[in-house]
Write a structure and sequence with these properties.
Layout (H helix, E strand, L loop, with lengths): L4 E9 L5 E9 L8 E7 L4 H7 L16 E9 L9 E5 L14 E4 L4 E3 L6 H28 L7 E4 L5 H12 L3 E6 L5 H6 L4 E4 L15 E6 L3 H10 E9 L13 H6 L1
Parallel strand pairs: 8-9, 8-11, 9-10, 11-12
Antiparallel strand pairs: 1-2, 3-4, 3-6, 4-5, 5-7
Helix pairs in contact: 2-3
Length: about 270
């Protein structure tokens, strides 16, 4: 029998524009309409969850709200024959945890299009250890290396750089690109993480301060590819230092949403 009540982290906005967070009892009837009701087993913590948790209206415009941009769990009710009750499923991305009640609650209800069946050989805990950060890192790492080597039949990708390397996407990108045979340079603002990043496979580690100078239109070509998670001046310098035919996967803006660059890296180095 389905228990209609569950616990959830709830972020509420006060009349003074301040936000408070608490664990509250919720009812399934509080959830938005959707095809699939999922009992959540695990979620993961992402940068976007932190923004939603503290009331960032660019991420979550409506409060009270439950964050959690991904979740894994078991289907408890389904309005579609494509997804069976009892199926183990993953939801990552779309509007989950943004303006749709997310994985930091006991249940979520979502459209069927948001659902992915948990792959065989991957258990629920590991799926959220990988999480949205791991999925993003995989997409970026594949784009940086395999797109050039396999799809474009280009030269081998050997030397790559990863910014925000201590974070979720960054650390997994370091690990993945290293496993793919790349020489990875990791950028971090936390010198204490140098040994950790090397344990993930980084060949070298540099401090973020080395990549925040004003970038030249073109600098010495150092990188066959890059994964950038921070934006701003770091991305400007990465673009200027990328070799001919290199691929830069930009997926974050932890430092800044703006970049001040030129067309030179694109038209001169492709």
């Amino acid at each position: 029998m389905l228990d209609n009540t569950f616990k959830a982290i709830v972020v509420e906005e006060s009349s003074k524009g301040l936000f408070k967070q608490s664990i509250k009892s919720r009812n399934i009837s509080d959830l938005p309409d959707g095809d699939i009701l999922v009992k959540v087993k695990y979620s993961s913590l992402n940068y976007k969850d932190g923004l939603s948790f503290y009331g960032n209206k660019g991420v979550s415009s409506n409060y009270p709200h439950t964050p959690g941009i991904d979740a894994v769990g078991t289907v408890k009710s389904s309005n579609t024959p494509n997804i069976k009750i009892g199926s183990k499923v993953i939801v990552s991305g779309y509007d989950l945890g943004m303006n749709t009640a997310g994985g930091f609650g006991g249940y979520i209800r979502v459209p069927q299009e948001w659902i992915s069946i948990l792959p065989e050989g991957l258990d629920s805990l590991d799926s959220m250890i990988i999480g949205t950060a791991g999925l993003t890192a995989l997409m970026c790492s594949f784009t940086t290396k395999a797109t050039r080597e396999e799809l474009l039949l280009g030269e081998k990708v050997e030397n790559v750089i990863v910014s925000g390397a201590s974070g979720g996407v960054g650390s997994m990108s370091v690990m993945m690109l290293s496993k793919l045979g790349c020489n990875v340079t990791a950028i971090t603002g936390k010198d204490a993480n140098k040994d950790y990043l090397k344990s993930l496979g980084a060949k070298s580690v540099i401090n973020t301060s080395e990549m925040t100078k004003d970038a030249r239109p073109l600098d010495k070509g150092l990188w066959d590819g890059a994964v950038d998670t921070v934006g701003g001046k770091v991305l400007e310098n990465i673009l200027a230092q990328t070799k001919d035919g290199g691929i830069v996967s930009a997926c974050g803006n932890a430092a800044d949403i703006k970049i001040n660059t030129t067309v030179m890296p694109f038209i001169i180095r492709g």
